[in-house]
Amino acid sequence: QAQLVESGGGLVQPGGSLRLSCVASGIPFSTYIMNWVRQAPGKELEWVSSISPSGGITNYADSVKGRFTISRDNTKNTVYLQMNSLKPEDTAEYSCTTGDHWGQGTQVTVSS
Questions:
Q1: What is the pLDDT of residue 101?
Q2: What residue ranges in 29-91 does DSSP mark as E strands?
Q3: Angle at Cα 29 formed by Cα 40 and Cα 45, nearest 5°?
Q4: Which helix (H) or strand (E) segment is 6 a member of?
Q5: In the chain, what is the straight-line distance between the N-terminal and C-terminal CA atoms, in Å?
Q6: What distance in Å separates the CA atoms of residue 45 and residue 77, rounded to the nearest whole number?
Q7: How many CB atoms lie within 10 A of CB 94?
Q8: pLDDT for 47-72, tens place per residue?
Q9: What distance in Å separates the CA atoms of residue 110 and residue 90, rounded to the nearest whole number?
Q10: What is the pLDDT of residue 76?
């Protein structure tokens, strides 16, 4: 049974950093493009970043480019999202997804 489990969210001040993790099980993780998406209250789902199966190709939404870094460790079936220089508008629930499989999400709140 496929399962994606995110962790690492929390409350952080503007300008701070967080690293999200997403551990996959039940899927051939190393064959999947992995994505991070987010949804703020009252807003539509927003794609944040993606990474190729080997990790060699990454893509970012303009809103996070230069501040967020996606990476993966296929030996640990884990994808990461390093978030730096966080802004209040980054506040959202962050989820990892293959497109077919979704995690439950982890809340990130950026506030002073």
A1: 96
A2: 34-39, 46-51, 58-60, 68-73, 78-83
A3: 15
A4: strand 3-7
A5: 40
A6: 24
A7: 24
A8: 999 999 999 999 999 999 999 999 99
A9: 7
A10: 98
